[in-house]
């Protein structure tokens, strides 16, 4: 059932809690699921709750080295983020966006557009908006 949610996915953000080793262990499951169904999907590993570590509220349970090693194995990029403070959240989404806009092959049906999406009907006639 869950495979329908990532069918034709070109990018996946796999999030885990930097203060909870078990959440990082579960990331392996999701990476395998996605790559089994979408082998060309670009992976981004997102360690969350960085603010708890920086503020010394909780200890880091997942080492940077472990994450980097895992990321190498699945050709993923790594970001450590905090939703509370916003640390690296923008950088993560900018990187995902940049990857797509700089590689038009990732844009389904938009090859050669260099990131400029053009809306069109199934017969190729340009559309004035997404719902017309």
Automatic annotation (TrEMBL):
SMART domains: RAB (SM00175), RHO (SM00174). Gene3D superfamilies: P-loop containing nucleotide triphosphate hydrolases. One of its GO terms (molecular function) is GTP binding. Keywords: Nucleotide-binding. It comes from the Eukaryota. It holds the Pfam family Ras. The keyword Lipid biosynthesis does not apply. Belongs to the small GTPase superfamily. Rab family. This is Ras-related Rab-24.
């Amino acid at each position: 059932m869950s495979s329908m949610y990532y069918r034709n996915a070109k990018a996946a953000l796999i999030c885990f809690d930097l203060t909870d080793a078990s959440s990082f262990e579960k990331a392996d499951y999701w990476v395998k699921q996605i790559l089994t169904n979408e082998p060309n999907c670009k992976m981004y590993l997102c360690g969350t709750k960085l603010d708890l570590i920086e503020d010394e509220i909780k200890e880091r349970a997942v080492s940077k080295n472990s994450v980097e090693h895992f990321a190498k194995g699945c050709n993923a990029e790594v970001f450590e983020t905090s939703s509370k403070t916003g640390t690296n959240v923008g950088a993560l989404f900018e990187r995902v966006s940049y990857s797509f806009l700089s590689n038009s092959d990732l844009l389904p049906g938009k090859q050669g557009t260099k990131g400029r999406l053009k809306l069109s009907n199934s017969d190729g006639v340009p559309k004035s908006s997404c719902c017309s």
